[in-house]
Amino acid sequence: MTTGRPQPLGATIDATGVNFSLFSERASHVELLLFDSYHALQPARVIELDPERHHSYHFWHCHVAGLKEGQVYAYRVDGPHDTRDSGSRFNRRKVLLDPYSRANINILWDRARAVGPEDNCAYAMRSMVVDLDDYDWEGDRPLRIPMADSVIYEMHVGGLTASPTSRVVHPGTFSGVVEKIPYLKELGVTAVELLPVFDFDERDVLRIGPDGRPLRDYWGYNPFGFFAPHSAYCSDPCGCLHIVEFRDMVKELHRAGIEVILDVVFNHTSEGNEHGPMISFRGQANEVYYHLWSQDRRHYMDFTGCGNAINANHPAVAKFIIECLEYWVTEHHVDGFRFDLASELSRGAEGFEMETPPLLWAIELSGILSETKIIAEPWDGGGLYQVGRFPGRRWAQWNGPFRDDVRRFVRGDAGLVGTVATRIGGSRDLFSRAAELPTNSINFLTCHDGFTLNDLVSYNHKHNHANGEANADGSDENFSWNCGVEGPTDDEAVERLRVRQIKNMAAILLLSRGVPMILAGDEFRNSQGGNNNVYCQDNEISWLDWDQAEKETEVLEFFQGMIAFRKEHAALRQPRFFDDRRNERDLPEVTWHGTRLEQPGWEDQDARVLSFTLAGFEGAPDLHVILNMYHLGLDFELPHVPGHHWALAVDTARGPGEDVLPAGSRIPVDGHSLHAHGRSVVVLTSFPIDGGSNR
After folding, report:
1. I want to staple 195 with a disulfide (CB 3.0 to 4.6 A). Which of 156, 172, 484, 632 is the partner?
2. What is the dihedral of CA 344, 345, 351, 354, to 10 degrees?
3. What is 85-124 written as a DSSP string?
4. Does residue 401 have a cis bond before it (omega within 30 degrees)?
5. Tell me: the pLDDT tens digits for 510-523?
């Protein structure tokens, strides 16, 4: 063993062995534990790091010759245990993971034994040395699809294929995702946004459900290994394939023209509050990594609802997060990140909102991250809400107002037409004041957190009893409407209305400026039985039922058609707000109407209809959109376009194969008005009177 280097942190393979480096400012003693195998209860070798030779400022380091990929290791770290004043929680009896580990193994893990003072070596997780250079990318590079052209598909790696109905070879894994790539390509999405794939504790039993089944962390929003792909998503969780299988998935998605966006959780960790387990951060630099109450540093500030909050703007923690993000981009070709409860990352040392948070600006200005997509969930669990005012300029943001306003409009709430027009136009009221653009708005109607789209039109109330929390968890206000019957029904009229309402919401989402995001399974009416908080349901409640994709072909084909329609028409994908431009036919870029032309009824508190005309530029056809959310059919005046007729392209009231018509099959519209059925969306495209092919 030699002194080694303090940088880079983690375990780094070189020609002669492995360099180890660990951050711990206040530690007095560090031991590196080397295990012969992942299931060995005790280390085969313990290396004590000399504070004189192996300690440089903040870092403890050494180089061990002869070690190779697959070496299993962990740490013991000792130092002051001064929880009240300094917040230090060192306990040399606890075996700790390397925070920079590229792979972890939890086969021996017992969470309960990581709490308290006792030694837990035989029950601890271990890290594993990985060779990052031993992989053939075959020329793969991030895709860099423009934000304005993106259609995001939010999905859970495990839940996508865990059900037997997925009929994949390796269900619930990165390899299972690869098997579904042809489906994703046919759907037409440009990016998958993966719920957390950093290592998290899926073995921790939260409680026993009412049916006697153990309930565990399913979503993965409690990470402990930020540089490591989640081992349970690998076909061999104890092998050296963690990185290989993740990279294979990224490479194959890129081959299909699909980007990979990771949902990342840097706002808290799996270690929880003062009663939680010691996994890594708590035993190495508790007072650095976490927000602690200044009056009594035994206790953790909690802006996340998960027991602790990361002190993200501390220099060492910011370094950790930036290096983690850059690692996933450089080493794994990831195309972007969605930051869970991102507003927590704007809090300073005392927990207050910072005007210029160093971490968020460092992410925005990083050269390595400059061409990646960065998306914020612009709120946290401590009441900080930053939609439209999130620090920085490049950050896209989940647009909660879009979700709520469009849901209310489609279910039939009156007096929302002005607000809905603003949402369709890219939410200028939220983003323009910060010199941002429609591409800063991630438009969505559903996500992992809440009802699925099918359940949004099938339930008036949440049904979360299976979570074992007396139906008290999850949001009570969902702006949903069950179309007359709570839950599944054999009533054909109710079912037809539900299908139409799903189409209505999908159509508005894909006709709006900004970046549309679709929840996996919504395109074939996947249901969670009215459960709007399936965080603990790693079972058929949350898994995608692929039999639905074969059964609900009408809705699936509508989604495919609308995504293709969006890609066809540049007017729907502009990266800026509507302005005063006019096209060669002297049409304004947008003109708003109601049932009568240029009378949108902004002040009408009973209005449930909206229509608008979008000008096509550079030879592109014009579009006319009718949104009739009134329960009865109405006649809508149509604008006159010199030298052009209108043709029907989309009508959510029509049946399978007729609701989205491809170019060349669109139906000419005669007259100066059109009758739109109640609760329907209609889209017309212009075509030249001389019989041009834009129809």
Report:
1. 156
2. -120
3. TT-EE--TTS-B--TT-S-EE-TT--GGGGSSSS--GGG-
4. no
5. 999 999 999 999 99
Is 694's pLDDT higher than 70? no
Burial 196-226 (b: 16+ CB within 10 A, else e): bbbbbbbebeeeebeeeeebbbbbbbbbbbb
User: Nearest to residue 72, comparing CAs of 111, 95, 105, 119?
Assistant: 105
Give 228-249 pLDDT, tens digit per residue.
999 999 988 776 688 999 999 9
Residue-wise pLDDT tens digits, 396-412: 999 999 999 999 999 99
Question: What percent of the chain lies above the pLDDT cut of 70?
Answer: 99
Q: What is the C-alpha to C-alpha distance for residues 609 and 50, in angstroms, rounded to an integer?
A: 74
What tens digit of pLDDT does each residue of 372-385 get?
A: 999 999 999 999 99
Asked if residue 692 has pLDDT above 80, the reply is no
- Rounded distance between C-alpha atoms, residue 472 and residue 462, angstroms: 9
**Distances 167 to 38, 237, 359, 522, 550 between C-alpha atoms, Å:** 31, 21, 43, 19, 13
- The total number of residues shown for the chain amounts to 695
**Residue whose structure tokens are 């058929």:** 540
Task: Give the active site residue among 377, 380, 436, 455.
Answer: 377
Handedness of CA 210, 215, 218, 222 (dihedral sign): positive
Contact 307, 342 (CB under 8 A): no
Residue among 263, 340, 522, 659 flagged as catalytic: 340
At residue 426, does pLDDT exceed 90? Answer: yes
pLDDT digits (tens, 9 = 90+) for 142-183: 999 999 999 999 999 999 999 999 999 999 999 999 999 999
DSSP-assigned states of every residue in 625-683:
EEEE-SSS-EEEE----TTEEEEEEEETTS-TTTSBPPTTSPEEE-SSEEEE-SSEEEE
Helices 358-365 and 315-330 cross at an angle (nearest 10°) of: 30
Tell me which DSSP letter residue 228 carries.
E
> SS3 sequence, 405-460?
HHHHHHHCCCCCHHHHHHHHCCCHHHHHHHCCCHHHEEEECCCCCCCCHHHHCCCC
Assess whether pLDDT exceeds 80 at residue 433.
no
* CA nearest to 222, candidates 162, 156, 267: 267
As given in the structure block, the two tokens for residue 427 are: 């939410």
Residue 687 β-bridge partners: 645
Judge whether residue 693 has pLDDT over 70: no
**Six token digits for residue 237:** 């969780």
Distances (CA, A) of 75 to 48, 123, 550, 591: 10, 14, 51, 65
3-state secondary structure of 555: helix
Among residues 196, 195, 194, 183, the alpha carbon closest in space to that of 256 is found at 183
Residue 405: active-site member: no
Give the Cα separation of 440 and 418 in Å (integer). Answer: 20
| DSSP states of 287-339 | HHHB-B-SS-TTSB--SSSSS--B-TTSHHHHHHHHHHHHHHHHTT---EEEE
Measured CA to CA, the distance from residue 481 to residue 217 in angstroms comes to 29
Measured CA to CA, the distance from residue 347 to residue 352 in angstroms comes to 5
pTM here is 0.97
The answer to whether 83 touches 297, Cβ cutoff 8 Å, is yes
Looking at per-residue pLDDT, the higher value among 690 and 469 belongs to 469
What pLDDT score was predicted for residue 198? 97
Beta partners for residue 155, in sequence order:
194
Q: How far is CA 79 from CA 286, 352, 645, in A?
A: 11, 29, 79
SS3 621: coil
Token code pair at residue 162: 């865990």
377 given a catalytic annotation: yes
